Amino acid sequence: MLCANINTIVHSIIGVLFIFILFPFLAYEGDQSLQAPFFQRQISPVSVLLSMGSSIISSFGTGLVIHGDNSLGIRTKDVMNSVIAGGIISGAASFYITTPFLAIIAGSIAGISQFIFDNYLEKIIYSKVGHISTSS
User: What angle do CA 117, 54, 30 make, to 5 degrees?
Assistant: First the structure.
């Protein structure tokens, strides 16, 4: 059982690294197809990386604030979901995120909302509706 969990964690971390590598370039290509200004095309990959990084930090910060200690631990699920949330919010709105500060704010909002949904709201919705998530 422990070996399967370690393999799952290793594969998850490899997937997160691929996301860190690929998401910025996808945002750059999306801005090129939208005929974005040159400066906007150059700042988009940096904004996506800042957003994903701040999403991870804010997700774990929210966990520490809510729990008061590291009782929840660093879960691979939180790392994966916060990276995806930060990349999606910055990649989808890359045309509107024009400064690194806005990317950090957007990533922080994504990380906080991801943590709250994953750890609290999902359980409430599950008790009312039934199984809705495949990430558990």
Answer: 90
